[in-house]
Each structure stands twice: as structure tokens, then as C-alpha cells.
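User: I'm preparing a small set of examples for a lab meeting where we compare how different chains pack in three dimensions. I only have the primary sequence for this one, and I'd like the structure in C-alpha cell form so I can line it up with the others. Please keep the answer compact; I'll paste it straight into my notes.
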Amino acid sequence: MRKTFVEVASSVLEENRQSSLFLGDIGVFGFRNALSSYPDRVFNIGILEQSMISMAAGFSSEGVIPTVHTIAPFIVERAYEQIKVDFGYQSLPGNLVSVGASFDYAALGCTHHCPADVNLISNIPGSRIYIPGHPDEFASMYRAEWNNGFLNYFRLSESKNREPFQLQFGAAKKIQDGSDAIVIAVGPILDELLEIAPHLDIEVHYVNSFDSEHEIKIDVRNDSKTVILIEPYYSGQLLQSTVGTFASKGYSIHQIGVPKKFIRKYGSYRQQLEYLKLDSESLKHRITEIINNESN
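Assistant: Understood. Below is the C-alpha cell output for the 296-residue chain.
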């Protein structure tokens, strides 16, 4: 997805003089041509994330829409106060593009993990969250939304689904019919679910964008009254965005996500996925257990 980000963002910079880019010492080589071509709009600020956010907000206040890019914990957690005050409180538009969350940098340890990013950004009024599951999804999202008047958070991942899906903002797409449960997956975790979905009688939906102020648009044709939400970060935001649809109508809602604990193990992304029981076989066991418990 990072390669696609460089291509699409570079194109936007070339086509729109009201666009700007701020890098936190990440992606500098990829954007080397943009840095030399647009020195008044493209900057490598270095490891100064708080200052970078404030500088970007200044550009936004003058009508030059910024995109800010670095690793997820450094842009979201380290600079959260600046995002909240300089963008949120001032109602300024802009784009935050992270890479690495939740634990893509599995070999680097907890300092480079960020499963809390989605819930943090969702607490800033006027923000929108985009979690593409495929590079093509990101490309269409970014082109359509970079200048939409909101504070946008694009969460890039090192993992991707095999197939892209084009969705409207805040809408779910049904992937499979089934009768035992409704299962909704977010972003790049979808493929883990699709590996085992044909062996389960479940209705599968896919989501890759939402905000905290509106319900996700979803067309449910299942009478099981069991809903399972699968999120590749700390659970919670999807529940907030669907509670009006399901809880008020008597559905039983179950959440599967990154557990709220520090991940002290090192290794590959796949190893972390298995450790956290978010791989396909673990999901099959957890979904089956939920369905069996609901039917008893």
C-alpha cells in the first residue's frame, strides 16, 4: 500500500497546487521527486511529529490541504494533542496517512505497535477513518476524499486482501450469504475470514470506512440475531457504528479484535496474528464457539 500511496499522492501534488505533503522521515526516498519538484509544498520534517502536525495545520488554515505521513504510533499517539487541538478544535481539514498499525512492525516490538489508533482518532469530532484492505481501495479513497473538508485518517497496512472492493463511505458490502450469524470484518482482516467462511453458514459483510457520528449502512438479511464484529485493532469503534442497527433490535453482539494488552512477543506479522488468535483457523474456532453458545 505504501507504493500506491507514493504514486497517488505524487499525482495529487502534481495536479493540485492546493495540496501539500509532510513526511516524518518516512517515505523520503519514495517522494524524492516530489521533494525536489515542489519544495514549497513537500517537506521532510524529520522526527518532530508534534511540530509536523502543527505546521500542517497552518497550511490547512491557509487553504493548502496537507497530507501528513509517518508510522502509526508516532503520528497518532505521540502527536495526539496537536491533532486534537490544531485540527479538531480548529475544524481544519487534512489527511493523516499512517503505516504499521496495529503490529505490522512485529519485529520491532511494542514501541512500533499501535492498535489504539482507530479509537483515538474516532474521538476527534469531524474525523473520518479509512482502513483499506487493498492498495486499489486506498487509491480510489484518497483520490476521492483528500479534499473533502474533513480530517481524514488513512490506515495503511503491510497486509492486504486478495481482492479489492469499492464501497461508499460508511457502507458495508455483503460478501456471502448465511443463516447462523452475521459477521462483519474491517479492512485487511477480511481475507482471514474468507479463508474459513465457505465452511461456515455465516453472512459476511465488509467495511473499510466509517466515522463516529453515523451508523454504518448495512443491509442485513439474516434472522439469527447473532452479530460478530472482527476488527484488526482494539475493538470498540465498529460496535459504536452499528449499535443502533443491531442492539436496539435485539441482536446479540460479539467483538473480536486485538486484545487490550501489550504485545511482548517479537516475530513476523503472521506469528503475531496467530498469537493473538486473529488468524483464519483461530477465527473459525472463535466464531463456531460463539454460534454454538448462542444456540444453546
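A couple of notes for your slides: The longest strand covers residues 226-234. The domain at 173-295 is CATH 3.40.50.920 (Rossmann fold).

User: Perfect, thanks.
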